[in-house]
Amino acid sequence: MTPFTYDQWVVAGLIFLLGLFIGMFLMTGGKWKRLYREEAARADALQAENDRLRRDEREMESLRNAAAKSPGPRPVEEPVVRRGDV
Asked: Phi and psi (nearest 5°) for 80?
């Protein structure tokens, strides 16, 4: 097997660069951009849902703590009935 000449190395390098450019051109198509945007939107929606759930959890925990600290329900006072009111 004979070694490559300088001209053959140049041609191989140019073909390699051409392949890189064609590959980059094909990867910028609408399909990949659309999939990336859908994934980013889905991640944003999940993050917003997680934030809302954390906020609700903190509120519920605060309400639980307030209910645990309260002395409980007050006894209901019965109205005083007088003989003339009946």
From this structure: -80, 125
Angle, CA 45 vertex, CA 41 and CA 48 arms, to 5°: 140
Per-residue pLDDT tens over the stretch 30-65: 787 888 899 999 999 999 999 999 999 999 999 999
Direct distance between the N- and C-terminal alpha carbons of the chain, in angstroms, rounded to an integer: 123
CA–CA distance, 18 with 60 (Å, rounded to integer): 61
Give me the residue spans of the domains in the chain: 29-63
Place of tokens 């903190």: 58
**pTM confidence score:** 0.48
- Rg of the chain (C-alpha set): 37
